[in-house]
Records
---
Amino acid sequence: MSSNSEERVRPVDPERFHLALGLYQAALATESPQANASESSPTPVEKVGAATAAPSADIPANRAILAVKKEFPDTGEFQSLSLRLQRFSEVIGDKKLIKWGMVHHSEGGIEVHDAVINALATAPFRKSGVLDKPAFHMLVKAEYAKLEASSP
């Protein structure tokens, strides 16, 4: 295997990506453990030691990624999942997907079509870690057609 293929972000199973996205969103929405802490808070020394040992669970994005890492301990799979999760906010703001009706923003939140999530699970990334948008958009269209064809 060449070093080029080792550097690429591997695709993930769409079902597992759906699970990781759900875990990530649930962890983002939960309250910080510090908000529920009892009177026996860690000392400043313990806080400093914990901060250097691992990402702080007080920060929602860190808490979310740690939840995903706990559920998906395989390093390669976790790396692919985490990079895709980091690009999710970019995807839900994609003007082309909004125009196509694949992403819908409303007062109640954001609705994302399964075709978008499935496509993000398998979309290619450039070596720099940037999502290949033209290839991603083609995958969204293909996923949408596949899902529409399989629905009764």
---
Amino acid sequence: MFQTEESWQIQEGIEMLRALAGNANLRQYRMFEIALNMPIYRLDVVLPEKFSKDQVLRRFRLQSLHDALQFIKETNPVEVRLTQETAFEDGMEDQLRPISAVSSGVDERGRQVFICESIAGTFTIGWNDCQYDGPTSDHRKIWPRGPLFAGGGVS
């Protein structure tokens, strides 16, 4: 969960920003707090723009791989770059792990896990969004969609 304070919200120019974005509920904040004991997912996407040839790269931070994959599924971006920023560990450097593919599986208790492929190797995210090192089964690739994949969607 990301936390923010009401006093961190930027009010100046928000009406114009809302009008330009076509979103009356848009809010803008100076900062937000991120819990460091969990991995964070950085999602860089180019979303399809209605009525425009221009494409804008947007960066989102999510605290759950499931939420990142759901966002990809719902928005069907033109381009996607998904990266895990590892959780804070005392005495360890933070790591950025670019994710090239994700499979779904189950752990020995039948809970869903995500098997992530990265340049540095494969790692598994458990049902609680933390690293999982136990056995998994029933693997099924869910992102990207496979050889005919066009865009960034989740199957």
---
Amino acid sequence: MTEPAAPTTPATPEDFDVLLRDVLGEDHQPPARRSCTLVFPLDRVRSVAELAVAAREHALGPGETDARPRLWWIKGDGTFLMSNGITATPNTRDADGSWHHIVYADGWGPGTDPSTVLGSEDLHETLDLTQPLPDGPRVIDLLRTAPDEATRFLLHVTHDGEDGGLVLTTTVS
């Protein structure tokens, strides 16, 4: 006599989304979260931020009118922080093969689909490195003065219920 097959249970929310697409069709999109916390390696964020601060010129993002050091949070092919500093060697890679001006969030590297992170739209938001945060120091100072035992940079993203905008807050841990 054969044993009955063990029921299969989706192991992760992503597995469950695949199962739902099988049932509901390929156009099914899981609901976006209203808030999330993205985790980045602190040493890489610090390096990318210092690249922006050290650059003599800075690219402007959508809606920006003054060029100054910034990190851009981009959600598209994965989700990452990117320096807006213009360098003489923009396509340089580090020894480990990573782009020197980009740092991906843990678990959200190239080829991942971050559509469940605050909606399915691609996204570009700005973290100004030189202006004080509403609740504390400048982002660059937060990075530079992080405790020695800190290894992660946390980007907390929340939809602002008032105008649909995003509120970004940062911490190190």
